[in-house]
Task: inverse folding
């Protein structure tokens, strides 16, 4: 692992650790459900055509 990759990797890990509170986790789950709902609606629309 070279230095460049390490400098990219480490801040990402720190950021992920800071963002991994319960609140942001719940928000992320809500976003996931929302996008899945949109995806399913779009797929049903195209299959119905």
Result:
């Amino acid at each position: 692992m070279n230095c460049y990759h390490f400098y990219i990797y480490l801040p990402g890990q720190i950021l992920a650790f800071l963002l991994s509170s319960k609140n942001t986790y719940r928000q992320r789950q809500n976003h996931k459900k929302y996008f899945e709902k949109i995806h399913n609606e779009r797929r049903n629309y195209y299959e119905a055509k």
Observations:
- The chain is about 90% helix and 0% strand.
- The chain has a mean pLDDT of 74.
- Residues 22-48 form the longest helix (27 residues).
- The helical segments are 3-19, 22-48.
